[in-house]
Design goal:
Largest sheet of chain A: none
Distance between the termini of chain A: 50 Å
Shape of chain B: globular
CATH architecture of the largest domain in chain B: 7 Propeller
Structural class of chain B: mainly beta
Distance between the termini of chain B: 63 Å
CATH topology of the largest domain in chain B: Methylamine Dehydrogenase, Chain H
Helix content of chain A: 55-70%
Strand order of the largest sheet of chain B: 1-27-28-29-30
Strand content of chain A: under 5%
Largest sheet of chain B: 5 strands, mixed
Largest interface: A-B, 64 and 51 residues
CATH class of the largest domain in chain B: Mainly Beta
Number of strands of chain B: 33
Number of helices of chain A: 12
Oligomer: heterodimer
Helix content of chain B: under 10%
Number of strands of chain A: 0
Structural class of chain A: mainly alpha
Radius of gyration of chain B: 26 Å
Order of helices and strands of chain A: HHHHHHHHHHHH
Number of domains of chain B: 2
Chain lengths: 313, 436
């Protein structure tokens, strides 16, 4: 293991060598043609392309027995836990059990009020789901980051994930607050504009918060500073970050849900088909988490420490 | 012991003015179709059962259907208008059929309540004029008929004379049949424009407003009320079943179900049984005293126009896919179901021998089922009851299969791909990395 990867005195871990540098001085021969597209190419942005990021995310998650196991185990336990609390389906909800905030936040709230109604009890249970959600996202991100770094043990990933828990919890709370704000304000704008506004809130929350879990694990800064840096990274030019967030929202909400077996059938005993579909969807969610983490790690040194002030010509 | 209606007739919506929906000595499942009566034209209303006929309102006639054969026993000409459920009341020794008739259309429409003496089959004059057309059914109690209209009015009409006793104005549409119990009339007006629903408790004698109930934030879409023994039960669109004190409308309890309710569906309420169905097909048995859920059955099919009815120890409900289903009252298990076919099953009436329900479609029809001693009883739990073998078995198979299908190829791919971040010292691929 290289000493360069160890935590520095400042608390920030050394950045993995930049993608562009890797192209300039490849560590080993380029992979055969089939895998060539996984190899970074030089460009005018430090961000890996969207397709490469997603491919890396799929690879990182799919090739890790531990991350797959944790994801699938969480999905199963979450379903059993919901059923134990009185949830009666439908199995279509499995599809988004492992979604990223704010998509997951929406479903946590939906499940909370679905079981306990729109009153205080439903809200409190939704908050409980949110606490658990933050824990799972933090731990899985920790495992993903360690795997992307190419060194470190699962235990280290777990501990680093736990240390990032306050930040990830804050991400979830902000997502929940945004949705609550939207649900109070947007109905006044009418059904059509209200719906668009709701989608805009989801996309905006994802855009500004997507990098925060990985940033918290990598840099171990204060919550506020981590959130700021996540937002600054999102606003970096030519990142195509919004495109990737839109792609994720589109996948997570209409697309995956539309084709879910037993989508609206109320049952607590999903079929094998429904489980397989839900687990594959969970794999995609976590792969996107890995893709966002990968992108963060590729650009973290380029993210401005202060807000970029634009001057008028 | 189930509370029973006073007679073996099913003279109005849910069998009685309080909407108990119960005929204890009605036929028990399994059932077989006894007959089908097809409307000569258009749709039919939900039926009432009096003596040996089922009575239903059609587009331009009211039909009496022979319960023994399903053939048409008689018909009364009707001008037209919305099809709503009739009722039969008793005045002295006379049985009087009441139904709504509308002559003309648009601004020229003239809606009246028609009374017919079932002994002589003669219409009784005068007809009672109503202020607006109506889609809801008619409740009869103590010599009066009570009904609501599409402009929020509730009426009391003397069955003997046709005199309009009183009219009470509400906000919205009265889509369902009012409930009557202990000298009070309960009518729900759903105001879609304002997004509110209001339950009005009116004095049956004077029509004066005793109290109203308008749950905040629940929106429009309140179910038809049911009332007995000092309690009124309604469902609201925020998925809550509310039990209110008949005295002052204060809430005794509320119980959460999975979904909202059809505005034309009522619960079945007696002193010891409360059955509620929600619009997407959830059937719930609640404790009438506390609202605690005793069981529920998710039928996974819409219930747009039917209300639960108890017959022979089973709860009957009509579904949007044309099935009539029977759930055991005690266990909550599905014990019988009819075949799917086009046309929803609406409100149900029960006689000692038959279960009669209206079937949607054009033309509409009445379908009667009788007890079938050769039929098979089922014992199917709700899909929302945990079956550990299915739940854990299916999940285990799926987890293993999905894991193998994803992990093997991606592991192979990872062994040939370059690490995410390389610096020359990290030549080792992911296959050499350690996992815990």
């Amino acid at each position: 293991m290289s000493k360069k990867r160890r935590k520095s005195r400042s608390g920030k871990r050394p950045r993995p060598q930049a993608v562009l540098e890797e192209v300039a001085a490849p560590a080993r021969p380029a992979p055969p043609g089939l895998f060539k597209w996984l190899t970074p190419r030089a460009g005018d942005t430090v961000f890996p392309s969207v397709s490469r990021s997603i491919a890396r995310g799929l690879l990182v998650v799919g090739s890790s027995a531990l991350i797959l196991g944790v994801t699938f185990g969480f999905v199963f336990l979450a379903w059993v836990g919901l059923v134990a609390l009185g949830f009666e389906g439908p199995p279509g909800r499995i599809v988004d059990l492992a979604a990223l905030p704010p998509v997951s936040t929406y479903f946590d709230a939906l499940n909370g009020v679905g079981i306990y109604g729109y009153g205080l009890a439903g809200m409190l249970v939704s908050m409980g789901f949110l606490l658990l959600r933050a824990l799972v996202v933090a731990v899985v991100t920790g495992l993903i980051v360690v795997r992307l770094e190419g060194e470190g043990t699962a235990l280290e990933g777990l501990l680093r994930g736990l240390r990032a828990y306050p930040t990830v919890l804050t991400v979830n709370v902000i997502a929940m607050a945004s949705m609550l704000f939207g649900s109070f304000v947007l109905p006044f704008l009418g059904a059509g504009i209200g719906f668009l506004g709701y989608v805009a809130i989801l996309v905006a929350a994802l855009v500004f918060l997507a990098f925060a879990p990985a940033a918290a694990i990598r840099e171990e800064r204060s919550i506020l500073e981590t959130l700021r840096r996540s937002a600054r990274a999102a606003l970096m030019p030519r990142s195509k970050h919004i495109l990737m967030c839109l792609l994720y929202i589109f996948l997570a909400l209409p697309l995956l849900l539309a084709f879910a077996p037993e989508g609206n059938f109320l049952t607590v005993n999903p079929s094998i088909r429904a489980w397989v579909y839900g687990l594959c969807a969970s794999f995609i969610h976590v792969a996107f988490l890995a893709a966002f983490s990968y992108r963060w790690m590729a650009v973290e040194d380029e993210v401005p420490e202060q807000p970029v002030k634009r001057t008028r010509r | 012991m189930l509370a029973q209606t006073g007679t073996t007739d099913w003279e109005q919506f849910q069998g009685d003015p309080g909407h108990p929906g119960t005929l204890g000595d009605g036929p028990a499942p399994p059932y077989a179709v006894a007959w089908t009566f097809k409307a000569p034209e258009g749709a039919l209303s939900a039926p009432v059962v009096v003596g040996d006929v089922a009575i239903t309102v059609g587009e331009h006639a009211v039909y009496g259907v022979d319960l023994a054969t399903g053939g048409q026993a008689w018909q009364l000409i009707r001008n037209g208008g919305p099809i709503s459920m009739p009722a039969v009341g008793i005045v002295g020794d006379r049985r009087i059929l009441v139904f709504v008739d509308t002559a003309g259309t648009g601004k020229e429409a003239n809606t009246t309540l028609v009374r017919v003496d079932l002994g002589t089959m003669k219409e009784l004059a005068p007809r009672t004029p109503l202020l607006a057309t109506t889609h809801g059914g008619i409740a009869v109690d103590g010599g009066n008929a009570y009904l609501g209209d599409d402009e929020g009015n509730t009426y009391a009409v003397d069955l003997a004379t046709g005199t309009l006793g009183w009219t009470a104005k509400g906000s919205g549409e009265v889509l369902g049949t009012p409930a009557v119990s202990d000298g009070r009339v309960y009518a729900v007006a759903n105001d879609v424009e304002q997004g509110v629903a209001t339950l009005y408790a009116l004095d049956a004698g004077s029509g004066s407003e005793m109290w109203t109930y308008q749950p905040k934030g629940a929106g429009a879409g309140m179910s038809v009320p049911a009332a007995t023994g000092g309690v009124v039960v309604v469902g609201t669109s925020d998925r809550l079943v509310h039990a209110l004190s008949a005295d002052d409308g204060t809430e005794r309890w509320q119980s959460l179900v999975l979904s909202a309710f059809s505005p034309v569906s009522s619960s079945a309420l007696s002193s010891d049984v409360l059955l509620v169905s929600d619009y997407p097909g959830g059937l719930y048995r609640l404790d009438p005293g506390t609202g605690a859920r005793l069981w529920d059955y998710q039928l996974n099919e819409l219930v747009p126009r039917s209300s639960p009815v108890v017959s022979g120890g089973a709860v009957l409900l009509g579904l949007n896919d044309g099935r009539l289903v029977a759930i055991d009252l005690d266990s909550g298990l599905l014990v019988w179901q009819g075949e799917e076919n086009p046309g929803l099953i609406g409100a149900i009436a029960v006689s000692p021998e038959l279960v009669v329900a209206v079937k949607g479609g054009m033309p509409g029809s009445l379908v009667a089922w009788k007890h079938d001693p050769t039929g098979k009883l089922l014992s199917v739990p709700s899909p929302t009851v945990v079956d550990p073998a299915t739940l854990f078995g299916n999940a285990a198979i799926a987890v293993v299969a999905t894991f193998v299908v994803l992990f093997v190829p991606f592991r192979l791919l990872a062994s040939r791909a370059r690490p995410a971040f390389g610096d020359g010292e990290d030549a080792a691929g992911p296959e050499e990395e350690e996992e815990a």
